[in-house]
Hints:
Blueprint: H1 9-14, H2 39-64, H3 82-88, H4 97-105, H5 120-123, H6 127-143
Amino acid sequence: xxxxxxxxxxxxxxxxxxxxxxxxxxxxxxxxxxxxxxxxxxxxxxxxxxxxxxxxxxxxxxxxxxxxxxxxxxxxxxxxxxxxxxxxxxxxxxxxxxxxxxxxxxxxxxxxxxxxxxxxxxxxxxxxxxxxxxxxxxxxxxxxxxx
Length: 147
């Protein structure tokens, strides 16, 4: 787990900027990047990050079971390419999703690509016409302002 921030309190003080924060609770402005870091806030954040990391480790160990190798780097935050991940027991294999699905569920499996639908003109190869139409619309927008 990672939590990133910045400290800008000296910068804003040098430029004569006054920071004003009003909260309804003593912990509402923890780790404010515009205030000096408080050791108690950092300690609390670290405890939360450690808890999150333990939950992640438990989840992966439960899901992967005996397939995981005993390697101290496994949960260090390092990352690997597929071959090494397979060697460590993090993945079962390396395959294209469609090939894997066909192997598992039969040759009739079809993947459907979801995404933004193309406009009518571009569906029929009218990219040039579509670009020309966009240029006309842009020109009309500028013409409203006498440009």
